[in-house]
């Protein structure tokens, strides 16, 4: 009954575990499909991708799918230009993918971090992340696009460090990659960066063709105005007044102060002093300090050529003022960038180390929990096994007792004894009362000791004497039993009814007749009892007394005593019993 309950409980448990595993598999498979679909929507429709991710129930998701939810959500938020939340989400997911060495998703993480740094104007951080992105890239992004961003940001960093040659090479490389990609937005961004470089240099021969090509693309807004301004200024520096005027007049009226400066410079180059002074005086009213600085430089040259010393003095004073203002702006920008460079680099390094360390400890603690849970399961299993073993031992003990009782209360033995008793009573034999007394003593001893594990040697010998008397009445001189046990061993203990069982087995498996009597000897050997008989097997192939001895061995095992020792040859069969 208990075994059936155990099997039923195990079957129910396996069924529940199987159903739970299948349910978790279906949930995670569905979530993975939805995440793949949402990830594909990030560039096309980031808001729809965000909605799809938010609708996923994360309760039963695996760790990987849970992290993927945050990663896709971060990408969708970056797609709709929400940068604050993605940064915190990426801080959560990046340790997991670093620990798993998942280059595919690490590329996405570094790309997203680079985008955040790019829009936050953290140039060095952007360079760091896009460098890592190119290292981990595994056909996730077009490597040319990654290298475009990398070169573009490097050019900006070189600008802050006043590395003109490196800045020019990086920005030209970015333009080349943008043209190769044929991406209008990237091309516009590359031209925008180049205009900043050429605005600070006098490299007219190389800059004019490039700026001219860019201006012909018809960009709108400040980029187009900036390109036209630089073209007009470069042509004016080369004393090509007609070309300079053409591009200056194309600048939108929104940037009239720049147009006035260019026209003033062109008229000054053409020696048209009044017109030049008119336009330059108008451009000097600009709110842009860079235009004002250029304007007062032209006015200074103009006043020197016309011999106006008062005008020169005033222009120099203005030049000093605007130069100091521009230097202050540039200094503050450079200082802020320089202060952030080491700080940002250290922040990237420290945050990544901290994230990896956090995840490593998190996994370590998870493993400890799993190991502890496994140890508890093992201990519980051992406890159940020990309990089951104990219960089996008890069942064996009970079965052994029943077997002992069955072995002793043999129906044939009872019927034989009753038949002998009837003959004794009918013939009026004087031994009948003694026979009844001995038979009663034997079975009283069996019943009294059936629930006991041990009995004294003295009690066993006393019962054995009554049993021998019954055998003598039945077999007369066909059985000879000799008992020689020292008094020192009589107080020791053995399993009950063992001696009787050995005598019964000897009679059962040997020939018994007056011509060839069976000799049985019971004697002590130190702290051991020995039951010995001569061998007179019933048949030539008759085996031994293993059926009865199996019961005796099990009973000795229950008491923890050494097992009986058996010796047999052609003439003697001997069983040596330990005593406790």
Automatic annotation (TrEMBL):
Keywords: Kinase, Membrane, Transferase, Transmembrane, Transmembrane helix. The chain crosses the membrane at residues 7-25, 362-386. Pfam families: His_kinase. Residues 401-478 form the Signal transduction histidine kinase internal region domain. InterPro entries: Bact_2-comp_sensor_kinase, HATPase_C_sf, Sig_transdc_His_kin_internal, TPR-like_helical_dom_sf. GO terms for molecular function: kinase activity. PANTHER family: SENSOR HISTIDINE KINASE YPDA (PTHR34220). This is Histidine kinase.
């Amino acid at each position: 009954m208990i075994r059936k309950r155990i099997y039923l409980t195990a079957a129910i448990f396996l069924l529940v575990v199987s159903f739970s595993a299948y349910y978790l598999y279906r949930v995670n498979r569905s979530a993975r499909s939805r995440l793949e679909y949402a990830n594909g929507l990030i560039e096309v429709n980031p808001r729809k991708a965000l909605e799809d991710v938010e609708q996923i129930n994360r309760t039963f998701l695996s760790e990987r799918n849970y992290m993927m939810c945050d990663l896709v959500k971060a990408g969708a938020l970056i797609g709709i230009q929400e940068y604050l939340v993605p940064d915190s989400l990426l801080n959560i997911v990046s340790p997991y993918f670093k620990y798993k060495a998942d280059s595919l998703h690490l590329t996405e993480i570094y790309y997203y971090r680079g985008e955040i740094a790019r829009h936050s104007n953290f140039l060095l951080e952007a360079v760091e992340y896009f460098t890592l992105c190119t290292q981990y890239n595994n056909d996730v992004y077009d490597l040319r696009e990654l290298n475009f961003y990398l070169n573009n940001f490097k050019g900006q960093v070189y600008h802050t460090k006043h590395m003109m040659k490196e800045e020019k090479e990086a920005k030209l490389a970015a333009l080349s990659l943008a043209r190769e990609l044929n991406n209008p937005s990237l091309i516009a961004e590359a031209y925008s960066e180049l205009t900043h470089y050429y605005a600070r240099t006098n490299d007219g021969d190389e800059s004019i063709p490039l700026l001219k090509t860019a201006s012909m693309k018809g960009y709108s807004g400040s980029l187009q105005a900036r390109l036209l301004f630089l073209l007009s200024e470069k042509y004016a520096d080369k004393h090509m007044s007609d070309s300079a005027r053409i591009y200056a007049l194309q600048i939108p009226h929104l940037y009239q102060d720049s147009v006035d400066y260019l026209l003033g410079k062109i008229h000054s180059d053409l020696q048209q002093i009044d017109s030049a002074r008119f336009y330059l005086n108008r451009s000097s009213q600009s709110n842009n300090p860079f235009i004002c600085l250029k304007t007062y430089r032209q006015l200074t040259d103009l006043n020197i050529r016309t011999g106006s010393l008062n005008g020169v003095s005033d222009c120099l004073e203005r030049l000093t003022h605007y130069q100091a203002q521009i230097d202050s702006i540039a200094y503050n920008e450079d200082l802020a960038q320089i202060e952030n460079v080491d700080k940002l680099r250290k922040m990237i390094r420290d945050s990544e180390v901290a994230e990896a360390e956090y995840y490593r400890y998190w996994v370590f603690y998870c493993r400890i929990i799993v190991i502890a849970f496994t140890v508890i399961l093992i201990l519980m299993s051992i406890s159940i096994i020990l309990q089951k073993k104990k219960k089996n031992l008890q069942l064996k003990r009970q079965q052994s007792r029943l077997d002992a009782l069955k072995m002793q209360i043999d129906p044939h033995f009872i019927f034989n004894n009753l038949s002998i008793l009837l003959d004794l009573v009918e013939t009026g034999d004087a031994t009948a009362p003694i026979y009844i007394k001995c038979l009663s003593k034997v079975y009283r001893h069996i019943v009294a000791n059936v629930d006991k594990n041990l009995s004294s040697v003295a009690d066993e010998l006393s019962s054995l004497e009554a049993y021998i008397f019954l055998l003598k009445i039945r077999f007369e001189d066909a059985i000879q039993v000799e008992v020689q046990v020292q008094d020192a061993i009589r107080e020791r203990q053995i399993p009950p009814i063992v001696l009787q069982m050995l005598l019964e087995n000897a009679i059962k498996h040997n020939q018994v007749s007056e011509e060839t009597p069976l000799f049985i000897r019971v004697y002590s050997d130190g702290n051991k009892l020995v039951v010995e008989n001569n061998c007179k097997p019933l048949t030539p192939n008759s085996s031994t007394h293993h059926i009865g001895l199996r019961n005796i061995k099990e009973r000795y095992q229950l008491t923890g005593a050494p097992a009986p020792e058996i010796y047999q040859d052609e003439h003697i069969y001997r069983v040596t019993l330990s005593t406790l």
